[in-house]
Specification:
The complex is a heterodimer of chains A (about 350) and B (about 230). Chain A is about 20% helix and about 35% strand. Chain A is built from nine helices and 21 strands. Chain A has a six-stranded mixed sheet with strand order 7-8-9-3-10-11, sandwiched between helices. In chain A, strands 2-1-4-5-6 form a five-stranded antiparallel sheet, with helices on one face. In chain A, strands 14-13-12-15-21 form a five-stranded antiparallel sheet. With about 230 residues, chain B is mainly alpha-helical. Chain B has a single domain, classed as MetI-like fold. In chain B, helix 1 runs parallel beside helix 5 and helix 10 runs antiparallel to helix 11. The N and C termini of chain B lie far apart (about 45 Å). Classes of the chains: A alpha+beta (about 350), B mainly alpha (about 230). At the A-B interface, strand 7 of A face helix 6 and helix 7 of B.
């Protein structure tokens, strides 16, 4: 449980953020300069808001009215920075143990062996940070933060400095943490992919203000948030379950209450909950059910809202069962097909438009 | 074995004692001042910076004279120190150490300050979030990472102390066995007819000492830089 209600003036920038979230992973989402890092720094005690309060699991870390302002070392926060910030003069093991040694034994709930196994650090313990790859550094940084026995884990763009294979690797490790440890995570990112894959609750920030707070499937599909969530990456998230694998074609079938999705083979057991992200620009529309077409995914849906802008593009919000889809089409198609609110049509999605990073365990 | 006479060994020992004591006593202060100048902002910071650097630009004789006026037996500070603690600097080897420390101080502070400024401050922030108090973070992160600068500063100040002449001779005079360090002894021999040979011998000792100090610093700096690298690859 995390409760943030703060106001802070940083030069010309005015931060005024209020949200309350109870979820394994809370995503703080927004473009660069939207105030994400200021919020997470305020939680960590690195910046001091002028007004308001910050509470984690009912412990006040900061409360301007009651003059509570715990120093960073007393907040029991695990902070994972964008560029790891490992201590260069210590080997990996000393880095890992830096925080643990400073916590009273009574406060410890996770030990070194567990963290080393969880993050696959066994072979790195004697190495120096300078000799590690980016992904390895970030794993050590996560381990170091965990061993500080935190009440909450803060992650500030932990994947931003990594290449795509490393990103996928670290994402999988973060999912393991969520599943195996009982530590809430605040995950800061400007990447829709990361947020939709990891977060349960999303807080959308723009220009120092909180635009929306809510479930990831709901918030990410909202058209009015598009300027903040980004044009290129706009899309929706479906909460699905694995129903079968086709060994021959290497296709996995996912079910949700608006139908079935076919995606490239996933390494997930049947029955596993999986979150699938569909970008608005990957969705095509058809008035009639198409036949003899290469697109595997054909979903029956209703138009629930239309966002027309002046440009050549029109965004539509569709309901497929209780799930929401967002489709982006040209104004010409929109006009030629005569699409209107409430209309029933078919949303088409190529199976290959799902990449490994857009489908993840939920 | 070294071919030095007992007198020469005495001079050498006194010089080393003065230089070592001056460095050891000024190092903690230089670290605090270097850290303050690198990391804190406070009113009068520019003034402090200027005062610290003063011995670098003033004629050493002026520094020595100022010490004599302030810390001499009848000086405002010197008389109090004598009265309260029984500490006397004037015409003692401790005074020579004080003069050396003062002259080497700007070099020491400068090297330490630069190396602290070069440390990524976010490393210190990260250590704070992991539960380290300010003091612990300073001791476990800042100091070890500033080590190359601390070594450089110490050696520079040590070498400066070995060579100190003007401030020393003005403040504590040139008393054989008490304040007559290597440079003062060399100077004395050059003033006596036929003393050139001895002046030369002591000059060679001074050269050897300085080179040894530089080599040691180079070795220490390289070792501390090496420690950031992986030994196993």
């Amino acid at each position: 449980m995390i409760d943030v209600d703060i106001e802070q003036r940083l030069g010309d920038f005015h931060l005024e953020v209020r949200f309350s979230a109870e979820a394994p992973i809370v995503g703080l989402f927004g473009r660069s300069g939207s105030g994400k890092t200021s919020v997470i720094n305020a939680i960590a005690g690195i910046g001091r808001p002028q007004r308001g309060s910050i509470r984690v699991n009912d412990t006040a870390l900061f409360d301007a009215a009651r003059r509570v302002d715990l120093p960073p070392d007393k907040r029991r926060i695990g902070y994972v920075f964008q560029d790891a910030l490992l201590f260069p003069h210590m080997d990996v093991e000393s880095n890992l143990l830096y925080g643990q040694r400073l916590r009273a034994p009574a406060d410890r709930f996770i030990d070194e062996a567990r963290v080393v196994d969880l993050l696959g650090l066994r072979a790195l313990l004697r190495r120096k940070p300078l000799a590690l790859s980016g992904g390895e550094k970030q794993r050590v940084a996560i381990g170091r933060a965990l061993l500080a026995q935190p009440r909450i884990l803060l992650m500030d763009e932990p994947l931003a400095a990594l290449d795509i294979p490393r990103k996928t690797e670290i994402l999988e490790y973060i999912e393991r943490l969520r599943d195996e440890l009982d530590i809430p995570i605040v995950y800061v990112s400007h990447s829709v992919t990361e947020i939709t894959r990891l977060a349960d609750t999303v807080v959308v920030l723009s220009d120092g203000k909180c635009l929306a707070v809510g479930d990831v499937d709901d918030v990410m599909g909202r058209l009015e948030l598009k300027p903040a969530t980004g044009r290129y990456e706009a899309g929706s998230v479906l909460d699905t379950r694995v129903t079968s694998h086709d060994a021959e074609d290497q296709i996995t079938t996912l079910a949700f209450d608006g139908g079935e999705l076919f995606v490239p083979r996933l390494d997930a057991p049947v029955g596993e909950r999986v979150r699938a992200r569909i970008r608005a620009r990957d969705v095509s529309l058809s008035i009639q059910r198409p036949i003899e077409i290469s697109m595997l995914n054909v979903l029956r849906a209703n138009v629930t809202s239309i966002q027309e802008e002046t440009g050549p593009i029109v965004d539509l919000r569709l309901a497929a069962g209780s799930a929401t889809l967002v489709a982006r089409i040209t104004r010409r198609s929109f006009r030629q097909l005569g699409i209107h609110n409430g209309q029933e049509l078919y949303a088409l999605v190529k199976a290959v438009s799902f990449d490994r990073r857009s489908v993840g365990y939920a | 074995m070294t071919g030095l006479s007992p007198d020469e060994i005495g001079i050498l020992a006194l010089s080393l004692r003065v230089a070592i004591v001056s460095v050891l006593c000024s190092l903690p202060i230089a670290i605090v001042v270097g850290y303050g100048l690198a990391r804190l902002s406070f009113p009068g910071k520019t003034l402090v910076d200027a005062i610290v650097h003063l011995p670098l630009v003033l004629p050493p004789v002026v520094v020595g004279f100022a010490l004599l006026v302030l810390l001499g037996k009848r000086g405002p500070i010197g008389s109090l120190l004598d009265e309260w603690f029984g500490i006397v600097f004037a015409f003692r080897w401790t005074g020579a150490a004080l003069a050396s420390a003062l002259m080497g101080f700007p070099l020491m502070v400068r090297a330490i300050r630069l190396s602290i400024e070069a440390i990524d401050q976010r490393l210190e922030v990260a250590a704070r979030t992991l539960g380290g108090s300010r003091l612990w973070v300073f001791a476990s992160i800042t100091l070890p990472l500033a080590l190359p600068g601390i070594i450089t500063g110490t050696v520079l100040s040590f070498a400066r102390g070995l060579g100190e002449f003007g401030a020393t001779i003005t403040f504590v005079s040139n008393i054989p066995g008490e304040t007559q360090t290597l440079p003062l002894a060399i100077y004395t021999f050059t003033q006596v007819p036929g003393g050139d040979a001895q002046a030369l011998r002591l000059s060679i000792v001074a050269v050897v000492l300085s080179i040894a100090a530089l080599a040691t610093s180079e070795w220490l700096t390289r070792r501390s830089a090496q420690s950031h690298r992986d030994d196993r690859r």
